[in-house]
Design goal:
362 residues, alpha+beta, Rossmann fold, OB fold (Dihydrolipoamide Acetyltransferase, E2P), five-stranded antiparallel β-sheet, 25% helix, binds adenosine-5'-triphosphate
Length: 362
């Protein structure tokens, strides 16, 4: 990571006797795109509001660009926050809304007008400059809000679910707009979202929070393929989580054997001490499971419970004889040959390389 622009050092936020953020430590590099995600109430917005100066930490330090910001009021900061409801001024047109930040900085009318038009153009909405914002569509208003936040050229832009009110096709377009802008401008983005696809599509690093704590920080691929604990494995979804105990005799070759109710499985060993009989949990991505009609050595026999279509990708939910639910994700075309609709037995398998061990006790 580049030099950190933002450092959260042992940050705690309490509301009376409820702790919304528990001793959080995080560094965000200059020019990084970081997404914060997690279930409702996990402390995402509280964290973002502390970065924006809308909340003061109860303990710890929020450092931005080398300066401790705990007590710096919002109007002395350069950390605009864009959120779902936008809070555009309804009595101003698009250009006037965008100009607002420069007006507050006493920039001359001609100069700020020119700059506002440049930003509206950059966001592809120059033609709406003189329109009242109330008459614009959701996506257009979202762009006005972004232009208004970016016109002061902040080093850090905070985004709180900015796309959650938009239609699915607009979300994809706005994701493109946001990532392009972020790369072109080199501004650090911290983006709070409920949406995994949004976070994984845009962010360099994703922070997963649970109950006021960071559960994992990493590149989207690492979070997806190598979850640090059961919470993350379940939260990112489409993972098969299989629990067992370390077998008395291992297969060697860097592999560990885990005895499970589905049978013994070999998985890639990690560095943790793994005495025989100790609990071991591993994760296999649903898209890494092979499914066939024929029994194969080591494959798990299953019956199909349900199917879910998302575009051309299908997820099959199956049940093993002991009641364990397993998921398989594949292209619809690849599954057509299996004739899933006719019922009957399926056999699932995966290679040891696709099985990711969770750390002991995680
Ligand atoms: N002003 C406040 N007073 C008391 N409790 C608060 C206050 N603000 C937030 N909380 C609590 O802190 C916890 C974290 O809230 P926060 O808004 O950060 O969650 P979130 O992860 O952003 O959730 P969501 O996804 O639902 O927006 C919640 O339990 C919330 O009720």
């Amino acid at each position: 990571m580049s030099e950190p622009l933002v450092t959260l050092r042992d940050v705690v936020k309490r509301y009376d006797d409820f702790t919304a953020v528990k001793r959080m430590n995080l560094e965000i590099g200059a020019g990084e795109f970081v997404a914060i995600m997690g279930p409702s109430g996990c402390g995402k917005t509280t964290t973002l509001r502390m970065l924006a100066g809308l909340e003061a930490p109860t303990e710890g330090e929020v450092v931005i660009d080398g300066r401790v910001m705990n007590d710096v009021p919002v109007h002395e900061r350069d950390t605009p926050l864009v959120w779902q409801s936008l809070a555009l001024f309804p009595f101003l047109n698009a250009r006037e809304n965008v100009e607002f930040g420069l007006k507050m900085r006493a920039v001359a009318p001609g100069a700020r007008r020119k700059k506002a038009l440049e930003w509206l153009d950059r966001l592809g909405i120059a033609e709406f400059a003189e329109r009242n914002v109330e008459t614009l569509s959701g996506g257009q208003r979202q762009r006005v809000a972004l232009a208004r936040s970016l016109i002061t050229e902040p080093r850090l832009l905070l985004l709180d679910e900015p796309l959650s009110a938009l239609d699915a096709h607009l979300v994809i377009r706005m994701q493109g707009v946001l990532t392009r802008l972020q790369r072109e401008l080199g501004i650090t983005f911290v983006h709070v979202t409920h949406s995994q696809s949004e976070a994984f599509a845009m962010a360099d690093r994703v922070v997963i929070m649970s109950r006021g704590e960071i559960a994992q920080v990493g590149a989207p691929r690492d979070i997806y393929r190598a979850p640090a604990n059961r919470f993350v494995a379940e939260f990112v979804g489409r993972n098969n989580i299989i629990a067992g105990t370390v077998a008395p005799v291992g297969p060697g070759f860097g592999l560990l054997r885990v005895d499970t109710p589905l049978g013994p499985f070999d998985v890639v060993a990690d560095d943790a001490p793994r005495p025989p009989g100790e609990a071991a949990v591993f994760v296999v991505g649903a898209d890494r499971v092979e499914i066939g009609r024929e029994p194969r050595p080591g494959a798990v026999p299953c019956t199909l419970i349900s199917e879910e279509f998302i575009g051309s990708v299908v997820t099959l939910f199956l049940e093993a004889p002991d009641g364990t639910e397993l998921k398989v994700q594949a292209q619809e075309r690849a599954l057509a040959a299996l004739d899933a609709g006719s019922g009957g037995a399926f056999h699932l398998s995966w290679s040891p390389q696709e099985a990711h061990l969770l750390p002991p006790g995680a």
